[in-house]
Design brief:
By secondary structure, the protein is mainly alpha-helical. It has eleven helices and four strands, in the order H-H-H-E-H-E-E-E-H-H-H-H-H-H-H. Strands 1-2-4-3 form a four-stranded mixed sheet, with helices on both faces.
């Protein structure tokens, strides 16, 4: 059996599909309400937001790299890292992305880019210094799986309408405060509808986007196992990264906190009790999923 056949998880794919469908249905209802309440000016607002989303999408790699403080490195500057990525790209049948290093001791990594041909993988110095080569390779394979799955495109599209809902919610609140009781009952009712519908849409879409993000992490973990053929290496890497977070100064964690949604493991020791608010699955669930993949690949992990 070819190793590539292990790359699909029917249950995970079904959950992602259902969540995406629910998110799309939510946005359809949102726009039906907006169209019935708003006049032409809202079309202009949405058009401007669409332009913003397009710019963000095409500039996503540059924005993420700059926000993290990452620096693109050449083959001469990081020969081992380049060699590792080149080998993984050959195994994954992917074009080689740009490679960057983030000057922080926090062990982590992320991938960004609008397409397979326009992408970048960044690793921190902390990750390179703390993990074994096989573990680093597994983390890089996880990030390459994100690129192969076009996760930046998926999450950009998923988040766009949530951004619209958030703007409409602010508009409703601001409009209500500015107008007060002026403008008649119809105008006040329209503002109330905008506020309530936008708030509901924003909250539900926030939760659905978080769910999609968690599913994408499971898919990338599985992809890494398929690319490397050794899920145990990613399991070891995830445990080490998670364990090291508690030893990193809070100041260093706060400096890169804005990148948590991108990282393989959020750079924070704070944990919310509710999983539905998380961008990443709990470590124990990721380990259980990788253990299942290992069994499918004939590489059972000892309990």
């Amino acid at each position: 059996m070819k190793r590539r056949t292990y790359g699909r998880d029917a249950g995970l794919s079904a959950r992602m599909l259902l969540t995406t469908f629910l998110l799309g249905a939510l946005y359809v209802v949102f726009f039906i309400v907006l169209i019935s309440v708003f006049q032409l000016s809202v079309g202009l607002v949405i058009a401007l937001l669409a332009i913003l989303a397009i710019v963000q999408f095409y500039m996503s790699d540059k924005i993420a790299l700059r926000a993290s403080g990452a620096k693109i490195v050449s083959c001469e500057e990081a020969p081992e890292l380049h060699s590792m990525v080149e080998r993984l790209c050959t195994l994954a049948d992917l074009p080689k992305p740009k490679i960057a290093i983030i000057p922080t001791d926090v062990p982590n990594a992320f991938a960004t880019g609008r397409s397979r041909k326009n992408s970048a993988v960044a690793v921190t110095r902390g990750l390179w210094n703390r993990l074994e080569p096989a573990e680093t390779e597994a983390v890089l394979a996880h990030e390459l799986a994100h690129i192969a799955n076009r996760d930046v495109l998926i999450m950009t599209l998923a988040g766009f309408f949530a951004m619209v809902a958030g703007l409409m919610m602010r508009y409703g609140m601001f409009g209500g405060m500015m107008r007060g009781g002026r403008g008649g009952g119809n105008q006040g009712a329209a503002i109330a509808i905008i506020l309530v519908v936008s708030l509901i849409t924003y909250v539900i879409s926030f939760l659905l986007i978080r769910a999609i993000s968690r599913y994408r992490e499971y898919a990338a973990d599985r992809g890494a196992a398929v690319i490397t053929g050794a899920p145990e290496n990613l399991m070891s890497a995830l445990q080490k990264i998670s364990g090291q977070m508690a030893h990193i100064p809070q100041r260093d964690l706060r400096e890169i906190e804005a990148m948590n949604a991108f990282f393989i493991i959020p750079a924070s020791v704070k944990k919310s009790a509710l999983e539905l608010f998380h961008t990443h699955p709990p470590l124990e669930k990721r380990m259980a999923a990788l253990t299942k993949v290992a069994r499918e690949m004939g590489r059972p992990i000892a309990a």
